[in-house]
Amino acid sequence: MDYAATGQEALSRIESAADLDALESLRVEFLGKQGSISALLKTLGKMTPEERQSEGPKIQGLREQVAGAIETRKAALEGAALEARLASETIDLTLPAPEMPEGSIHPVSQVMDELAEIFADMGFSVATGPEIEDDWHNFTALNMPESHPARAMHDTFYMAQNPPDKTMLLRTHTSPVQVRTMLEQGAPLRVIAPGRVYRSDSDATHTPMFHQIEGLVIDKGIHLGHLKWTLETFLKAFFERDDVTLRLRPSYFPFTEPSVEVDVGYSVIDGKRVVGGSEGWMEVLGSGMVNRRVLEFGGLDPDEWQGFAFGTGVDRLAMLKYGMDDLRAFFDGDVRWLAHYGFSALDVPTLSGGVGARA
Amino acid sequence: MKFSLSWLKDHLETEATVTEIADMLNAIGLEVEGVEDPAEKLAGFRVAKVLTAKQHPDADKLQVLTVDAGTGEELQVVCGAPNARAGMLGVLGLAGAVVPANGMVLKKRRCAGSRSNGMMCSSRELELGDDHDGIIELPEDAPVGTPFADYHGSDPVFDVAITPNRPDCMGVYGIARDLAAAGLGTLKPFAPEPVAGQFPCPVEIRTDDPEGCPAFFGRTIRGVTNHASPDWMQAYLIAAGQRPISALVDITNYVMLTFGRPAHAYDCAKLTGAVVARRAVDGEKVLALNDKEYTLTSAMTVIADDSGVHDIAGIMGGEDSGCSETTTDVLLEIAYFDPERIGATGRALNLTSDARQRFERGVDPQFLDAGLDILTQLILDICGGEASEPVRAGTPPSGSKQVRYEPALAAQLGGVDIDEDVQARILSALGFHSTKTEIGPGPKSWTLEVPSWRPDVDGAADIVEEVIRIFGLENIESVPLPRADGVAKPTATPAQTMERRLRRAAASRGLHEAVTWSFISESEAEAVGGGAWSLANPISEDMKVMRPSLLPGLLSAVQRNLDRGAPSVRLFELGRRYLGDGEHPSLVCVLAGDKTPRSWQAGKAQGFDAYDAKAICLGLLAEAGAPVDNLMVMGEAGPFYHPGQSATLRLGAKNVLASFGMIHPATLKAFDIDVPVAALCIHLDAIPAKRGKDGFARAHYTPPALQSVTRDFAFLVAEDVPAGDLVRAVKKADKANIVAARLFDDFRGQGVPEGKKSLAIEVTLQPTEKSYKDKDLKAISDTVVAAAAKLGAELRG
């Protein structure tokens, strides 16, 4: 039998099979149970060993040749079919994808997280206190007895509801947390106390509610030099600039003695004040050595302990660092403003990554 | 406090420039808020002589002048002033000068057709007075061509903020003393000569309120002429921002601003009987110098005579007894009032004045006689007349105090080591004198006599402040705080950690964090059940009640955003709500408008529903560490929610951790919102602290070797059975094998009987030891069906 001719013919038919179905019928025709090549294989059993010796490999060769050709043709046809299908599945990828809503962190929260991170590195923990405060904690214990003129300067909101023995008010500063922390934790202490404070005041730069952060260090042998270092170190870390310069000016706060107002040097870049350098000075912090009477009200022996306190506006720090210019917008909840000035949830301040989120 | 350089130089011998003085004032704690130099304002204005004056050819009211302003040429100037005439001397503004009163820049121009090279000025135009009837006329000897600022005398004015602890610096003399101590000059010695009386004081002076008015000194001066005060005094007062009134009034103001010592002058003709410091009678009225009537109480001290009250003591005089141009006899009052009483009275009457500011902070109690002498001498010099003998009713407090001070404290508290001699010199210049120096086994200490004008100083820390502020705070070196060994330890409390985490979890779910006011309006508070705290003195009715919930503030923000055209508003706030029992940290989210916008894929825009709120709520609770699998969905979310589309999430029957759902349409209407709003409120302080060990290692876990199997069950159940109950029952049916049960269909309608629904649940089974055989699966199925049957559910065939 002329296997070669049979093979040649089979290969040529396989090669010209138009589609997978045609190829499958050829496979059945050649290699199926009733197939022509399968039939040839069956003849081997009736042959003599000598015939089998010579014919076997030929028939086997023919089968392998045909099977291989079918596989090859099949792969080619499948590839072509896939290409045709994919071509029909083409989509316009310039069409918009589904929108994922993007949220944000409010600048006040972001800055408070930054402050907590910086001060944690200096060993400060975060303390809190009530916003509806009594006048003892807000004034008296901070060395502002009832008749003190400084009380009048605080534009205090008073509550309509008062327990029999107390006058309740909205805290005018975060300083009452100083006294509460001393009474609760004793000394030594290193805390910051950020939070909402209230003054009966409203214009472009003042809102009746705003945020302050208080810092308090009580220990032995603490002096103004430590205060200066702490504020310098904090401001350098917060603004991530090494050229932050401070100017201390004597001032007056009833709860500190000596009292110091702190100006920070700025430079003007693109018409805006930027912290760093010393083209001019702006007032950023009030501070001083904690008054002996405040230590006593806080249950500490002023002959044993001394320390410093400072306070500044969180909103103001946020504005100076991130460039907002209208305080009132902070409390409006305008989603356009929040989307612009807010921070990504992933902007978690870290010391290794930098506490600030760059624009 | 405003004062001019000449005024300061009356008391301070100094060559320092204006800038040096301003810098030093800042450095020693007298904050300069501004320095105004009139010479700058008057640049370009010169003394000029009118050479000729002719009627303007084309304008009736104008003249054409030729003027010599020392420029070497005759300048033609058009002028409308009636008093302009040849030969007179006046002030010419040259081209380029800026008119102080209106900011107009002068130019060479044509005026009614005639050339004009400048402007002859009136007093008002140069802000030197109110006169605008004609141009300024200068004396004949005024040097033509001289800059007018030089001729007029330019006196820079300092505006200084005085802190409430420094009543002594509410007078120019006190400021001069501080500057001298800081080395900027020499304080001119000052000792008023006692003025002898010519006759006994005809007016009886008493204090019947020794508590409120411990001392009331006074005297009369008769035969005075109360014309205008001298120019120098008027100039000082104008510099201080005061309006000159008459010599007698101006003299008392001048003494107050120079020595920080208020006093009052009464017209004797308007007084009847004894002049007495006493308590007011409740309801007594007085018309004060500001033309307002005040109703007094018995807590207030007044100065009165037989006819009534003439002065709210230490705060403001009365209109009826003040001095006028007809005054001939005057009674001077110089008293010491209790600072606390002054403050309380001023606050009660809501009345501030220069006098109150000084008395409230504490005037020098040892300056009554000196003050009276200064006032008397000035009146005699300026107004003439003769003075009575002084009367001294009561005794002022001595004001003397001693403070023990260790020079070492400058370094220990102030952080700057200052030589003892330097400290002593500073203190002495400020009026503190050491009466005793102790050198013993302890640190060296001084006993210092505190000057009577420094009521603020009562301890060693005050002395440190005095020493270092004068020595210079710029000398303080930064000293690092001691740092604990190793890496900084975590400091956040569990509550703080949870808040920080929740904030970022909410933001990562597409919500913007808002910060809204803590106070809301009464009606907004009512919409969420009313508030427990309200302000007695709110800034407006919109900011009156402390929010009992964060929801109203956020709903208002939603409304504002929708009004601005925002298609979708997703906001959250993390803050306190204020209840009767305290302040509670809460997290509230609101979802309004489009959840998904209309799109080519999804078609119409989709709104938010209660399940969106539920998803966020459970997600955030899980982030907060709440045991979300154990929470029960229950009712009573609150009246501001849609009653059929809201729920609470509770741990046990009572502990409500959160509520969520759709906001009630009536609530939305109250906030002027016309789209549905989904919301959720989480009570952060109701979330139990995470239980478990402190460590970091997780519970041991190995993924099971055998594959899990799922089986679907469809149950017919009464419509009012909550799906959650059925899922819970199924899940608990065989805890050993069932690891999850998830509802995936809720069907009613064709094929489901009336009043029933079909709930389909996919149950996940996890074999442990060996794979399930058919009989195992059958047994588990039977258990599930039996558990469901307890809720009346039957397996759908």
Characterise the protein shown here.
Chain A has 359 residues and is of the alpha+beta class. Helix content of chain A is 40%, strand content 21%. Chain A has helices at residues 3-15, 20-31, 36-43, 49-88, 107-121, 135-138, 149-152, 176-185, 224-239, 292-297, 314-322, 335-341; strands at 125-126, 132-134, 168-170, 189-198, 209-219, 246-253, 256-269, 272-275, 280-290, 306-313. In chain A, strands 1, 4, 5, 6, 7, 8, 9 and 10 form an eight-stranded mixed β-sheet that branches. In chain A, helix 1 (3-15) packs parallel to helix 4, helix 3 runs antiparallel to helix 4 and helix 5 packs across helix 11 (314-322). Chain B is an alpha+beta fold. In chain B, 25% of the residues lie in helices and 28% in strands. Chain B contains 20 helices and 41 strands. In chain B, the strands form eleven sheets. In chain B, strands 28, 31, 32, 33, 34, 35, 36 and 37 form an eight-stranded mixed β-sheet that branches. Chain B is elongated, with a radius of gyration of 42 Å. Chain B starts with a strand and ends with a strand. At the A-B interface, helix 5, strand 1, helix 7, strand 4 and helix 9 of A face helix 8, helix 13, helix 14, strand 28 and helix 16 of B.
How is this structure best summarized?
The complex is a heterodimer of chains A (359) and B (797). With 359 residues, chain A is α+β, with helices and mostly antiparallel strands. Chain A has twelve helices and ten strands.
Features of this protein?
heterodimer, A: 359 residues, alpha+beta, 8-stranded mixed sheet, two-stranded antiparallel ribbon, 10 strands, B: 797 residues, 5-stranded antiparallel sheet, 20 helices
